[in-house]
Automatic annotation (TrEMBL), chain B:
<protein>
    <submittedName>
        <fullName>Thioredoxin domain containing 16</fullName>
    </submittedName>
</protein>
<feature type="transmembrane region" description="Helical">
    <location>
        <begin position="7"/>
        <end position="25"/>
    </location>
</feature>
<feature type="domain" description="TXNDC16 second thioredoxin-like">
    <location>
        <begin position="131"/>
        <end position="250"/>
    </location>
</feature>
<dbReference type="Pfam" id="PF13848">
    <property type="entry name" value="Thioredoxin_6"/>
</dbReference>
<keyword id="KW-0472">Membrane</keyword>
<dbReference type="Pfam" id="PF24510">
    <property type="entry name" value="TXNDC16_3rd"/>
</dbReference>
<feature type="domain" description="TXNDC16 N-terminal">
    <location>
        <begin position="27"/>
        <end position="130"/>
    </location>
</feature>
<dbReference type="Pfam" id="PF00085">
    <property type="entry name" value="Thioredoxin"/>
</dbReference>
<feature type="domain" description="TXNDC16 third thioredoxin-like">
    <location>
        <begin position="251"/>
        <end position="341"/>
    </location>
</feature>
<feature type="domain" description="Thioredoxin">
    <location>
        <begin position="394"/>
        <end position="493"/>
    </location>
</feature>
<dbReference type="InterPro" id="IPR057639">
    <property type="entry name" value="TXNDC16_N"/>
</dbReference>
<dbReference type="GO" id="GO:0005788">
    <property type="term" value="C:endoplasmic reticulum lumen"/>
</dbReference>
<dbReference type="Pfam" id="PF24508">
    <property type="entry name" value="TXNDC16_N"/>
</dbReference>
<dbReference type="InterPro" id="IPR036249">
    <property type="entry name" value="Thioredoxin-like_sf"/>
</dbReference>
<dbReference type="InterPro" id="IPR057645">
    <property type="entry name" value="TXNDC16_3rd"/>
</dbReference>
<dbReference type="InterPro" id="IPR040090">
    <property type="entry name" value="TXNDC16"/>
</dbReference>
<dbReference type="InterPro" id="IPR013766">
    <property type="entry name" value="Thioredoxin_domain"/>
</dbReference>
Length: 682, 824
């Protein structure tokens, strides 16, 4: 779809030859696109570049793709769902429930062929990524560690500068566009007194035997922490978990990065009084002391400072001395740090201005909603490292999310550097509802990247036709024309999927009664993932599209209509029981459908016809109803239509028949007016 | 304001009554003074305008007065214009033209005189006249003290209808007076124009008018105030009438019948009913509650006490309130509402739909309960339970598609099962399969593109439903005709052979033209086209082949280009290259020389030739004639057309009178929807047949041939000439505004805004920057109280009420969307 046939494998064999002949001379080899890292995001990008026949290379540190998964997660169980059966044949729909596959045209490269487990083993992911690379013939340069990245200003370059990559052998690579898909590779460490006693998730033993009869403190409250706890739950004396924030359950937040039910065995035992515990404290206030027996005591930095520096363990006040409620009165045998990962900024030269976003400390580089670095044009961040765009909101930090954002980035690049407009299907206006319902029913990108990627419908002049653009980054809608090469002069629809604004969040009762909404007019209060359709008369001009949640008082005046559907169990809309999206704005349109008889009536009683009649019936393509349908139609719809015409007729023919003053009937005059005006409104 | 307090002058009429006056004349009678006074009857009121004989015959006032004749007659008041002639001067005849006045007599007693400027329009005339006549029934007051005096005087005796109008003579004043005319003897009407008075009884934001019902009759204790019910609808005669009717109805009724069957005046007036379910044990308390509710809902709903113990039908055990909407056919709702406020709010949230219906006796349609405004979607939805014999067509999948399409000749329907148009057309498709069963080599298949989007995309199908024909060794052909059984069947049948047919002998050509050659096909194509070419006209032949190929499935085409082609061309007087058109129904063969042999032009010639000169217009063929962009001259006929009319029009066609029109006729028996069209044109509908000219493409005027004239050539010609020079007036003009869906769209934005402003008033809304969102997000987790569940809580109550009968449905194993998604 929209992708050209498989391009020749490699477009410049001559260049390769040059590299082979002069390896020692450090002549920079040029590539249009350089991808850092052969993980899922790097490979996904490589796939799109390859299909488009672009000049690219992927640089990979190790000798095979997906090296992260050779070691992580430590306990080998992936928590991304491998749902192999959905009862649905639609391949696009099935991607909604496939959290591991990368996007490709090859149905063999679906993860369900690689593992039968619902929560698959990480080795299968390694095998899958290897096959993906080999089957598609992606160009990956293995054993190439990029040690330094810098900028070289050059007027001729696409972006005014080249990215200069130096590998461990001193070989220099010149790139027009740099796509960073290196993930988060630096374990997050918090500095506090005693942090040297802490073992890291990346190196701690995964053998439960090593924990038999021990008291264990785990720092962190994420999936890695719970995964570690789960592994040793049965053999330890007890496990305490400590983190700054309260535990967030992904089934309450809809965020797959929060604690998943599969890992929360410890919560179960905590709530059932089985010695395990959860504690809340800021790690930076913490101090860990090692006593003479080699056991660890937890205290606060504050007490340590009070006591001075060179005190022995025993003389330092411990919180439990004053406050009996302090849970950590017992010493621990081990302290394990499971605090997540940070982006590796170290290889990037300052000139790249690849700063970390302030909101997340050192975790993520700062990027725009188009995934381009805020510091240097032409540098895009993909994959897990790009999660700052939708951190704690959507799925952009995970395979099932970033496979779509990679495609979006590729489409942006195709337009920016190769003049290929964002792919779009042009259809007559009568297909509007169908197109929307179809995407809402089956689109996986909208579904996985809810609230982040949006489908955009650009209306043509007089709203007789439209262009349908898929999965455009919502926050970039203001720059849509510039970024896609499409024109949005005559109004547009923006379609996204969202959860109800008050539904999810830590601490909320997500199973409350009547959480589902049955009436169409209540659709906006829908709690489950549901489509929201915005209609704008013009492209929104502000920096930010006021997507939901839309704070009151900041209403974007250009938003004309929001149409949403109430959810259904299967997420299949049939447009029944609710009205299909249409608007009644002046000069607008509708894609309501009519049988030929109605069109016939309209054609002879109106000067302007509904589009469905104009474009279908009058072009001899109308829908002729069968006998049984005609029956239903007569019952439901047409009588009303006739009634409207009838009323006028009866009003004027009615005569006040009685002239006895005292029993005079009320004149029918006012009613005739009210009916008429009512008709006008409709 | 002035008129209310003005003094009455009483005069004596000198006239002697001697002629009986007939009071049912509609137009304003013009009489001499003497004659006028002779018509006055004792006890009857009469309004007379005295004017100078030489004054202009029409004036604004006279027009208004003329209009007031009919309404005043309804109240038994006659109206007349009295011409003051010199011979019989009357004291009512003013000296100067400007000082002419209207006088109101009762019998021969003068009640009031009106300067003409107070009677500025028909409303003012009616209002003033009634006001003067109902001097006792309608008390005009200016201060609160007056109101209190009246109130006190009537306590325990009668109820009061108190109204405020901004000024005397405005439409609202007329409405009040008209109501007073009917109800003035039953209720005391009190009127004021003092806004201060209204404000002093606690009404705010009054724009034009207000009307209160004071329930004074019930009040026995003089120190107690009368209860007041405000009428919330605008002040119109009808609204006041309905309002008073509701006030008249009993406050609370006890019933022991099935709520579904119960009907009261409220229901007939478009108001819902609220049943308070009561049991023997709690009867007293329930009755008090019900009365309290009834007072609160007075004018908004009818309240009944439902005695559960003596009830024969089952109502759910826990339900304590039953809500019955005014719309017919809507099931009653069983609710559990813990306090009175919930009942009130439930009613108030649910009555917005009702428009007050015409008359309680009339069999008017209830408010629309159809939720869909998509005709096809609604129809298909209603038909959802029907099982189609789908097995007559082969369902394809991604795996079987290519193999099936390669193996045999196929018609493939590409559809999506969630789309109404697709599902409607699927029925026609199955009908085609039934008709073709066992007779066709063509395999009818279908593929659900909701399941196999990739196949459909690969076949370049982006719109649904879509039909393609796959024939071995040939490019697939897209079907572009009407989505119906007949047209698709025709397409399939005609496509059994390939076009254009190559005719190789003169004899074969004759058989072809006579219809013998493809006997079984000519029922699908009323015309066969034969292209005649000399063997050396290669490009022309290619072009014709292209045209024939383009038209395949719609019309039969053949080609003849043997050496002896001249035999044929001579026989049919054609010059090569030429087309022979054989019209099988008429048995005629005509020839058309081909000036241009371009494929497009050939297609155009053939499609034009398919049109008739005076066709019966049908739903199916209108588009072909509509395309011509000419005004339609339609003869609406109830059944077959009268041959005389047909001949008259055909003669006009021959005489070239109708070149700028598309003459056609419509058989209402075949095309019943034509009645809807006539209703839009005529008001009232004259007897059929009707000849109408509809200028659809420029202006939308509709002209009607006078129905009292015979449809004969002379009359038609005359009428057309009049039309041409603009002497005829259109009977109606078709609306030119954009077509709009019949139901308004949901305005979710304002709903959301309303909800946020309600709940977030304590929180100052702020615009969040991208980074703020994330920071804010973090803060929320720290601060538990940042987002409380309050909004959800309120929603929950609301939903509970509404979705309650879903819960009931659960018991009867009906799995509804609501319930299903709860499992989600």
């Amino acid at each position: 779809m929209g992708l050209s046939a498989l391009a020749p494998l490699w477009s410049s064999p001559g260049l390769l030859l040059v590299i082979a002949l002069h390896p020692a001379l450090s002549v920079p080899t040029h590539r249009d696109y350089c991808v850092l890292g052969a993980g899922p995001a790097g490979l996904q990008m490589a796939y799109f570049l390859q299909r488009a026949g672009r000049d690219y290379a992927v640089f990979e540190r190790t000798q095979r793709p997906g090296s992260f998964f050779t070691r992580y997660p430590r306990h080998r169980k992936l928590i991304s769902i491998n749902k192999r059966y959905t009862g649905n044949a639609n391949s696009e729909f099935n991607l909604r429930h496939d959290w591991n596959s990368l996007l490709s045209h090859d149905p063999r490269l679906l993860f369900r062929h690689y593992s039968r487990a619902y929560f698959p083993d990480a080795h299968d992911m390694v095998r899958y990524l290897g096959d993906f690379t080999d089957t598609l013939g992606l160009r990956v340069l293995y054993n190439t560690t990029i040690t330094h990245v810098t900028l070289d200003k050059d007027q001729r370059a696409w972006n005014g500068h080249y990215f200069i990559l130096t590998d461990q052998k001193g070989q220099v690579h010149q790139c027009s566009v740099l796509l960073v898909a290196t993930g988060l590779s630096v374990p997050n460490q918090v500095d506090f007194p005693g942090s040297e006693y802490v073992e890291g998730y990346e190196s701690v033993s995964v053998d439960p035997e090593d924990f038999v009869g021990q008291n264990v403190l785990i720092l962190g409250r994420g999936n890695s922490a719970f995964e570690t706890a789960d592994n040793i739950l049965g053999v330890t004396n007890f496990i305490h978990m400590l983190s700054r924030s309260r535990v967030r359950l992904s089934w309450a937040t809809h965020y797959v990065g929060d604690l998943r039910a599969i890992n929360n065995g410890l919560l179960d035992t905590y709530q059932l009084k089985s010695l395990d515990g959860l504690l809340e404290s800021d790690l930076t206030d913490l101090a860990i002391l090692k006593d003479s027996k080699g056991k660890f005591h937890v205290t606060l930095k504050f007490f340590l400072e009070e006591a001075g520096t060179n005190q022995s363990t025993d003389s330092i006040t411990l919180p439990q001395d004053d406050n009996d409620n302090f849970a950590m009165r017992v010493p621990y045998d081990r302290v394990i740090r499971c605090l997540g990962w940070n982006f590796d900024f170290s290889i990037f030269n300052k000139s790249l201005r690849l700063n970390s976003g302030n909101a997340f400390g050192k975790k993520y580089p700062l990027i725009r909603a188009s995934y381009e670095s805020k510091g240097s044009r032409g540098l895009f961040v993909l994959g897990t490292a790009s999660h700052s765009v939708d951190y704690r909101k959507s799925a952009g930090g995970f395979i099932h999310g970033f496979r779509y954002t990679a495609r979006a980035v590729h489409r942006l690049l195709e337009h920016r550097h190769h003049g290929i407009a964002w792919p779009a299907t042009e259809l007559p206006i009568t297909q509007l509802t169908s197109s929307i319902v179809r995407r809402v029913n089956e689109a996986s990108g909208l579904y996985q990247m809810f609230g982040v990627l949006a489908d955009v419908i650009l209306l043509k002049e007089n709203a007789t036709a439209f262009e349908y653009l898929e999965e455009f980054p919502l926050q970039m809608v203001a720059q849509l024309e510039m970024l896609t090469g499409r024109k949005a002069q005559h109004g547009l629809f923006v379609i996204i999927m969202e959860y109800g604004r008050n539904f999810s969040g830590p601490d909320k009762d997500v199973f409350f009664d009547n959480r589902s909404v049955g009436q169409t007019e209540d659709a906006w209060q829908s709690n489950f993932l549901h489509p929201v359709i915005y209609y704008y008369r013009h492209l929104p001009t502000g920096e930010r599209v006021s997507a939901l949640p839309r704070p009151a008082g900041c209403s974007d005046l250009s938003v004309r209509r929001v149409v949403t559907h109430s959810e259904t169990f299967t997420h299949t809309l049939t447009c029944q029981g609710g009205r299909p999206p249409h608007t009644t704005q002046p000069g607008s349109f509708s894609s309501l459908c009519f049988c030929v008889e109605s069109c016939f009536l309209f054609a002879l009683t109106r000067q302007k016809l509904p589009p469905f009649c104009q474009q279908g019936y009058l072009r001899m393509q109308g829908l002729v109803s069968t006998e049984s349908l005609r029956q239903h139609r007569v019952e439901s719809w047409l009588p009303r239509n006739h009634a409207a015409t009838d009323s006028r007729l009866e009003d004027s023919s009615q005569q006040p028949g009685d002239h006895e003053p005292l029993d005079a009937p009320m004149a029918p005059g006012p009613l005739a007016q009210s009916l008429d005006s009512n008709k006008e409104e409709l | 304001m002035s008129s209310g307090s003005s003094v009455f002058r009483v005069g004596i009429s000198f006239a002697i009554m001697c002629i009986f006056y007939v009071p049912t004349i509609d137009s304003l009678p013009e009489l001499s003074p003497q004659k006028y006074f002779s018509t006055l009857q004792p006890g009857k009121a009469s309004l007379a305008y005295f004017c100078q004989a030489d004054s202009p015959r029409t004036s604004v006032f006279l027009e208004e007065l003329n209009e007031a004749v009919r309404p005043l007659q309804d109240y038994g008041i006659s109206v007349a214009k009295v011409n003051c002639v010199k011979e019989e001067t009357s004291r009512y005849c003013g000296k100067e033209k400007d000082l002419m006045k209207a006088y109101l007599f009762k019998g021969n007693i003068l009640l009031r005189e009106f300067p003409t400027d107070t009677l500025f329009d028909v409303n003012a005339i009616v209002a003033h006249v009634l006001f003067a006549l109902l001097f006792n029934e309608v008390k005009y007051i200016t201060n609160l003290e007056d109101l209190q005096n009246i109130e006190n005087a009537l306590k325990g005796k009668a109820n009061i209808v108190f109204s405020y109008v901004r000024a005397i003579g405005i439409p609202e004043h007329r409405a009040v007076m008209e109501a007073a005319f009917v109800y003035g003897t039953t209720y005391q009407f009190v009127l004021t124009t003092e806004i201060a008075l209204l404000e002093s009884i606690g009404s705010e934001d009054v724009e034009y008018a207000r009307l209160y019902f004071f329930h004074c009759k019930l009040v026995l204790d003089l120190t107690q105030q009368c209860r007041r019910t405000l009428m919330e609808q605008p002040l119109t005669t009808l609204n006041i009438h309905l309002f008073i009717k509701i006030m008249k109805a009993p406050l609370l009724t006890e019933v022991a019948d099935d709520p579904q069957q119960v009907s009261t005046v409220h229901l007939q007036l478009g108001l819902p009913l609220v049943f308070i379910v009561s049991q023997q044990a709690t009867y007293e308390a329930d009755r008090r509650t019900a009365e309290w509710v009834a007072w609160r809902l007075l004018g908004k709903a009818g309240v009944l006490l439902l005695l559960r113990d003596s009830l024969e039908v089952n109502i759910p055990q826990h339900a304590n309130v039953v809500f019955k909407r005014a719309e017919k056919g809507v099931p009653v709702e069983f609710l559990v509402l813990r306090d009175v406020d919930l009942i009130i709010s439930h009613v108030e949230n649910n009555i917005h739909v009702e428009e007050i219906q015409e008359d309680e006796d009339d069999d008017v349609e209830g408010p629309d309960i159809v939720t869909q405004d998509d005709e096809v979607a609604e129809t298909v939805y209603r038909d959802r339970k029907r099982k189609l014999p789908l097995e007559l067509t082969v369902e394809l999948t991604e795996e079987t598609f290519n193999a099936t399409v390669m193996a045999s000749d196929n018609i493939v329907l590409f559809y999506v099962d969630w789309q109404a148009v697709s599902m409607a057309f699927l029925q026609s498709y199955i009908d085609v399969a039934i008709k073709l069963k066992g007779t066709s080599t063509m395999l009818l298949t279908r593929i659900n593109c909701a399941d196999w989007p990739d196949v459909c995309t690969k076949q370049n199908v982006t719109e649904f439903p879509f039909v393609k024909m796959y024939k071995k060794g040939k490019n697939p052909v897209s079907y572009t005709g009407m989505l119906g059984t007949e047209d698709l069947l025709k397409f399939i049948q005609l496509n059994r052979i390939s076009y254009p047919v190559n005719i190789t002998s003169i004899q074969e050509a004759e058989e072809y033209l006579s219809g013998e050659l493809y006997k079984d096909l000519i029922s699908y194509s009323s015309m066969s086209v034969l292209g005649l070419f000399s063997p050396n006209m290669t490009t022309a032949k290619e072009d014709f082949s292209e045209a024939g190929n383009y038209l395949k499935g719609y019309v039969i085409t053949g080609i003849y280009s043997e050496e002896d082609v001249s035999l044929l061309s001579n026989r049919y007087a054609a010059t090569l290259p030429a087309l022979l058109l054989a019209r099988h129904t008429e048995g005629k063969i005509e020839s058309i020389p081909l000036a241009s042999t371009h494929a497009q032009d050939v297609v155009q010639i053939i499609t034009d030739a398919l049109l008739e000169t005076f066709p019966e217009i049908t739903v199916e063929n209108l588009p072909s004639y509509f395309r011509l962009q000419k005004p339609l001259l339609i003869l609406f006929s109830d059944g077959s057309i009268n041959p005389q009319y047909k001949n008259a029009i055909l003669t006009l066609v021959k005489q070239k009178y109708l070149d700028s029109f598309t003459p056609c006729w419509l058989n209402l028996k075949n095309t019943p929807v034509g009645r809807g069209i006539l209703r839009a044109y005529f008001d009232p509908l004259p007897p059929l047949p009707l000849l109408v000219l509809v200028n659809l493409h420029s202006g939308g005027q509709v002209f009607a041939f006078p129905s009292d004239q015979a449809i004969i050539e002379e009359n038609l010609v005359l009428w057309l000439k009049k039309l041409e020079v603009g002497l005829e007036n259109p009977i109606t003009i078709l609306p030119a505004q954009e077509w709009k869906p019949p139901l308004p769209a949901y305005d979710f934005l304002s709903m959301m805004d309303a909800a946020t402003s309600q709940h977030d008033t304590e929180k100052v809304p702020k615009c969040m920057k991208e980074t703020d969102v994330q920071e804010n997000d973090k803060e929320q987790y720290e601060d538990k109280s940042a987002v409380r569940k309050e909004p959800i809580e309120t929603l929950r109550i609301k939903h509970w009420n509404r979705s309650n009968w879903f819960k009931e449905a659960e018991k009867s194993f009906k799995c509804d969307k609501e319930l299903c998604s709860k499992v989600n």
